[in-house]
Design a protein that fits this description.
Largest sheet of chain A: none
Structural class of chain B: alpha+beta
Structural class of chain A: mainly alpha
Number of strands of chain A: 0
CATH architecture of the domain at 3-186 in chain A: Alpha Horseshoe
Number of domains of chain B: 2
Radius of gyration of chain B: 20 Å
Number of helices of chain A: 38
Number of helices of chain B: 7
Oligomer: heterodimer
Helix content of chain B: 25-40%
Bound molecules: coenzyme A
CATH topology of the domain at 3-186 in chain A: Serine Threonine Protein Phosphatase 5, Tetratricopeptide repeat
Chain lengths: 683, 201
């Protein structure tokens, strides 16, 4: 390092200085126990030595002595405030605390005392990109690159930085410089190299220079291992360049590989310029459907753009295909068309007509010809089943639950072991508002196929909708490990099962178990927070792997993390719950229940309330999420004295989203209202 | 319905589908590890909206180097939401994943495990996709059930692009569009003919 004078407080005799270097090495190789021993020998002679204290503290934080370790780190820093090691250690500690802001400050201090330290610079860069301080990130990566230009990752990382701020020209020139200087030729099957070539190509395209992107693509096409990507990029570039015939061929090649990818069909339509021309479009799909018999998209797409008689014909063919083959998924495929009333009408007419020909088969024992050969050509006894099954879903979707029920009963009468039929019946009951019967029916479905987790999950969900927590938990626990605390509930938390945690929270909220509800909503937030933190390790990892495009995707996706329904739904639930806590504090809620009762009745009610609560609480206690869960009922959350501030914690991540502004306004309104005035409850 | 390569934005949907369908589950981080290490290997099927994941295959290159150094792929997880099953999604997802493992990562074969009692999956792997049973792994699953360890050779995969170049005649398609009703053989499709077209099951 530098020849700077060693300050007095940092001086170690040669023997101890060697020991200190040993501590650093042992720490890096995770030999914590040994490292601590050696550190102690130094401290025997130099008890005030800041860097040793800091290192010892840091190691202790890895050996389950966090608090003591933290103290030592601070003490070490105090004893040697101008040591880059002490600052670096404090930065590392803050990083593990996820206190990124502080950590970055520490690294910056450290760099003041050792500006060329590559390790610290690298750690700082990681924090900067995590905090989306992209300018800072770029400047750190520049410095790292100038120190170690022989390492490819350093070039990749800087190019990624420029790509993240959309400075594609600089990003490209960085990658180009590396390529120009690259001495060693890449191995032929080097996926990392292949990825980086595509990264550069992507950058050129992003810069808007499609022509050059295509030229570059043709140059690298033979070396790149990801053939699919080359085909996809080529098709897109050709299309954008208006080279329609070649683009059409490129998209056909893609369809040939995967005849169920919508984007390819869209590309082909554009290349052939048929998007706005229904007859041409129809002819195109007829030809494609013939060639790609297994393609669902080729058959399905025309259902969207065809209308009237043409739609009728197309949908008849589509639906009869499903019904005759006995595929239960006909309805989920046609469901998206149900926004168009005339299509709904046409589907209904066809399905009813189709059914009548089938019942004809059933009653005559011979094939009826009155409706044309086509309709009955492939009719089998199960076709009848799938047709009534379809009609049940159809009528349920359009709100005729009674008719739907008739059809589903026919399906069940025909095949009493058909899981799908009970699932549909349960849905019909749910839509009719009979949540208890819906849950029981879904459970019947589950009992027919105990091996299938999907129907098990559905049964759990339906029980929760019917406010049956016990049944829900014991059902879902049939598919969880159950070796920790809290049966399946703990496992599902651990596995980040957001649908379950949210449903359970909403159930508790409906049942006025405010503490439990809040606890679940906080769990959802914790899961999403963890998904945010998870990206940290990939800043470095993805750069090393060369998967830069995926990494940039990751960064952009993480930026939209909290705007996604899995978060906003729980956030809305939580905020509403906190608002109601603010509007009607617990005492007021109890008072409301007791209003208008005589003194004696009151006492009785209170007693019963208490007894019920105690019983219920005991049961819920058993649902600890982990051994460490010291508030399984969420009492601490419920007893908050600052519900509006707590609501803000959920609101903050979505405060800039137009769709959720109203939630913020509800919170603000209450903050500004005079304390005694009671605001109208929102939830 | 749409089938395509999985992206980062699909991970939470894959995780959700996995939790709905299978008892072997993974945290977000593990999916992220897959995605940033083998971005080409996993595929998803979505509903018509294009955002809801209804099926996925999570695949990777086996990390432990084989003794003989032969790179091979592994299918970590595959499932389809029950309401979307039996229409071929799993088979198509698998085919795409196998091709990627072969092309991008040079996998010579691919391996996977399946519960002995899982009829649907067994049919899919053995009969539809032509996997072989290599051995029975005793008590492979958490609940004690045995697994079939299955394998498929990838070096026999067709070169789809070359076949396409060699055999595909695009003109018919372009003509079909330009002249509206031409069939493959260049014949005009009449209304009755197009109606009489029957589905192949
Ligand atoms: C196994 C699973 C992925 C199959 O998905 P899918 O999309 O329905 O499968 P496909 O429609 O592509 O069917 C492929 C083949 O398997 C057959 N098959 C599907 N389900 C079947 C069943 N329940 N019984 C018998 N065969 C079945 C199909 O008929 C088809 O055969 P074919 O090619 O001879 O026509 C799906 O059932 C599932 O998600 N199950 C739960 C999760 C699971 O078990 N995953 C596999 C873990 S190893």
């Amino acid at each position: 390092m530098s020849a700077r004078q060693v300050p007095k407080q940092r001086y170690l005799a040669p023997k101890e200085a060697a020991s200190f270097r040993q501590v650093l090495k042992l720490y890096e190789t995770h030999q914590y126990k040994k490292a601590l021993k050696v550190a102690d020998t130094i401290l025997k002679k130099y008890p005030e030595h800041g860097e040793t204290l800091a290192m010892k503290g840091l190691i202790m934080t890895f050996t389950d002595q966090r608090a003591e370790g933290h103290e030592l780190i601070k003490l070490g820093l105090r004893n040697d405030i101008s040591s880059f090691i002490c600052w670096h250690v404090y930065g590392l500690f803050n990083r593990t605390e996820k206190n990124y802001e502080e950590a970055a400050k520490c690294y910056q201090h450290a760099l003041k005392y050792d500006p060329e330290n590559g390790n610290i610079l690298r750690d700082l860069a990681l924090l900067q990109v995590q905090m989306r301080n992209l300018d800072g990130f770029i400047s750190s990566r520049k410095q790292i690159l100038s120190q170690r230009p022989e390492i490819r990752q350093n070039w990749t990382a800087l190019a990624i930085g420029y790509a993240l701020v959309k400075d594609y020209a600089l990003a490209e020139s960085i990658l180009q410089k590396y390529e120009d200087a690259m001495i060693e030729a890449a191995k032929p099957d080097d996926i990392e190299h292949s990825e980086l070539l595509l990264f550069k190509n992507w950058i050129i395209h992003q810069s808007g220079d499609v022509k050059r992107a295509l030229e570059d693509l043709e140059k690298i096409a033979d070396v790149v291992l990801d053939k699919l990507c080359v085909l996809e990029y080529r098709a897109l570039y050709l299309l954008e360049l208006g080279r329609s015939e070649e683009a059409a061929r490129a998209y056909r090649k893609l369809i040939n590989r995967n005849p169920d990818c919508k984007a390819y069909f869209e590309g082909l339509e554009k290349a052939l310029k048929v998007t706005d021309d229904v007859p041409k479009r129809k002819a195109l799909y007829a030809a494609l459907a013939k060639q790609y018999k297994r393609s669902n998209v080729a058959k399905w797409n025309p259902l969207v753009f065809l209308t009237g008689q043409e739609f009728k014909e197309a949908v008849s063919e589509y639906l009869s295909g499903f019904l005759a083959r006995g595929v239960p998924s006909a309805f989920v495929n046609l469901k998206p068309l149900y926004t168009d009333d005339s299509k709904v009408q046409a589907i209904e007419e066809f399905a009813l007509k189709y059914l009548s020909t089938l019942t004809g088969v059933a009653s005559n024992g011979s094939s009826s010809t009155s409706n044309g050969a086509k309709d009955t050509a492939e009719a089998t006894p199960t076709t009848y089943l799938w047709t009534v099954f379809y009609l049940a879903q159809h009528y349920s979707k359009i709100g005729k639950q009674d008719v739907a029920m008739e059809y589903v009963e026919k399906a069940i009468a025909h095949t009493p072991t058909l899981v799908e039929a009970y699932m549909v019946k349960a849905k019909i009951l749910k839509r009719s508002g009979d949540l208890q019967a819906a849950a029981d029916t879904m459970n019947q479905a589950r009992e027919i196929d105990l091996q299938d987790r999907f129907v098990n999950s559905k049964a759990g969900k339906y029980y929760m909708r019917a406010n049956k927590n016990d049944e829900a938990v014991s059902t879902i626990s049939l598919f969880t490990k159950n070796d920790g605390a809290g049966k399946g509930v703990g496992d599902l938390h651990e596995m980040q099962c957001i649908w379950f945690v949210t449903e359970q929270g909403e159930m508790f909220a409906r049942q006025d178990k405010i503490g439990m509800a809040l606890k679940r909503f906080h769990s959802v937030k914790k899961i999403v927070d963890d998904w945010w933190t998870d990206q940290f390790d990939f800043h470095q990892y993805a750069t090393r792997q060369g998967t830069a495009r995926t990494y940039i995707d990751l960064i952009r996706w993480e930026d939209s993390l909290y705007s996604q329904p899995f978060y906003t739904r729980a956030a809305e639930d939580a905020i509403k719950t906190y608002l109601s806590l603010h509007d009607t504090p617990k005492s007021a809620r109890v008072a409301a229940e007791l209003a208008g009762l005589s003194e004696e009745e009151r006492k009785r009610v209170m007693k019963k309330l208490k007894r019920d609560r105690a019983k219920e609480n005991k049961k819920l206690e058993a649902e600890k999420l982990s051994e460490k869960d010291d508030d399984p009922l969420g009492k601490n959350l419920e007893n908050t004295t600052k519900p509006l501030e707590d609501a803000m914690v959920f609101y903050k991540p979505i405060k800039d989203l137009e769709a959720w502004k109203w939630l913020g306004e509800e919170i603000e309104k209450r903050k500004n209202a005079p304390v005694e005035a009671k605001t109208e409850a929102t939830a | 319905m749409d089938i395509r390569q999985a992206t980062i934005a699909d991970i939470t949907g894959m995780q959700n589908a996995n939790l709905m369908n299978l008892p072997e589950n993974y945290v977000f981080r593990y999916y992220l590890y897959h995605a940033t290490t083998w971005p080409q290997a996993s595929f998803v099927a979505t509903d018509a909206s294009g955002t809801k994941i209804v099926g996925y295959v999570l695949a990777k290159l086996e990390e432990e180097e084989q003794k003989d150094g032969v790179p091979h792929g592994h299918v970590t997880s595959l499932s389809v939401m029950r309401t979307y099953r039996r229409m071929g999604l799993a088979g198509k997802l698998m085919e795409l994943a196998l091709r990627s493992l072969y092309e991008c990562y040079g996998a010579k074969f691919v391996s996977l495990h399946v519960r002995k009692s899982n009829r649907a999956a067994l049919h899919l792997y053995r009969d539809t996709l032509k996997f072989d049973v290599k051995e029975i792994s005793k008590a492979y699953y958490g609940d004690g059930e045995d697994a079939y360890a299955m394998q498929k050779d990838l070096e026999t995969l067709d070169d789809l692009d070359a076949l396409f170049e060699a055999t595909s005649d695009d003109d018919f398609l372009i003509e079909a569009v330009q002249n509206l009703n031409l069939t493959e053989s260049g014949k005009l499709v009449t209304e009755t003919e197009s109606e009489a077209k029957t589905e192949t099951a």
